[in-house]
Amino acid sequence: MAFDLNTLQEKLGNKDITAAVIGLGYVGxxxxxxxxxxxxxxxxxxxxxxxxxxxxxxxxxLDSVSGxxxxxxxxKGLFKASDDFSELKYADFxxxxxxxxxxxxxxxxxxxxxxxxxEIAKYLRPDxxxxxxxxxYPGTMTEVVVPLLEKESGLKCEEDFHxxxxxxxxxxxxxxxxxxxxxxxxxxxxPDALDLSVKFYEVFISKVVPVSSMxxxxxxxxxxxxxRAVNIAFVNELKVIFDRMGIDVWEVIDAAAxxxxxxxxxxxxxxIGGHCIPIDPFYLSWKAxxxxxxxxxxxxxxxxxLSMRDYILRKLSETLGKSERLDGKKxxxxxxxxxxxINDQRESPTFPLMKSLVDKGADVDFxxxxxPQILPMRQYPEFSGQNSVPINKATLKNYDAVLIIxxxxxxxxxxxxxxxxxxxxxxxxxxxRNIYGRAQVVLA
Length: 444
Hints:
Layout: H1 5-13, E1 18-22, H2 28-37, E2 41-45, H3 49-56, H4 67-75, E3 79-82, E4 93-96, H5 111-123, E5 129-132, H6 140-153, E6 162-165, E7 184-187, H7 191-202, E8 208-211, H8 214-245, H9 249-256, H10 280-290, H11 296-320, E9 330-334, H12 350-359, E10 363-367, H13 393-396, E11 401-404, H14 413-419, E12 422-425, E13 440-443
Helix pairs in contact: 1-7, 5-6, 8-10, 8-11, 11-12
């Protein structure tokens, strides 16, 4: 039985479609919100009972999606949160938004994608379109997802069902962009699949960019993130070089940024964080290796970004007394989120730095109003459950040094500058805000 193209096209034309979104995290929930805000019926699926509990109450766990909007969508019958994957049979489009982490050997871990594909296959029916949004290496859909769907379901891709790849482009905390206005790349390896997927996203995304294949779409996403990783590594290396020369890298970057063409400013920091930028280069490197190619430039960038932890430790040790050890030193770390003004701790460079500080004998506390308590982690479990400490005049005097790792806007930097003995500033947070005090400030 051939795919019923006309019926699904008619449903798209009438905007009478149902979408299932698998994975209701930082990508899946905002995507669901964008869909149901445009009248698309959404079945949100997740295996996390805590998320289900919050959503079923008409509440939200993300700042980018209000509880009120969730509650209203549920009342109108536009949104349903569930852990029952049999609901998939009611969907016209199935969108996968699950994690794609690394394993212990820094190789791609597609277990979430694979397990999701197997679960979909149990309920997959003819005339559905399955779309992967999770960032991954080129070839994942063709080599991994499609074979699993066909084997487990007994259906045939391009005859019974269609597939596409459309990479997520979320930027948590960036209020200038939301899911609905960020251009959406869509790739498929069959013209009908591409046409259906483009029309699907055009219902709720302002600009859709079709490309010739799923592999192009997969490669485009990974290119975006590797681009950032490489350029951050470049300015991190400049930071170390210019520091030795007595030159302020932040002033250099600002001066260079006045050129209206041929230059794009990137800024140094304590390393890289978040789900994408620390991980995607490894996905591309692994795939390149499978193809018999080396990624020397990308691998070097990764080494440079990882080395920023040692650079910060060295600057701290030099400032506190030139000793490798930090026995007895009390340190306060500002920020465990991977970037400012969000509550996302995934792959934050703060945690490996905190571990190194503790390993050197220091007593380490942290302050982060966005993350009042560190959530459980597979890596660095020793910090799970640790609570944020308040910043005030009395507590700051107890610390030998304050390290600014994440420059949230709600931090009282003037108080830190006035009441701290030493501030190791990895984000240029104080001077960029024209804040000065009695503290010895060291840019790192």
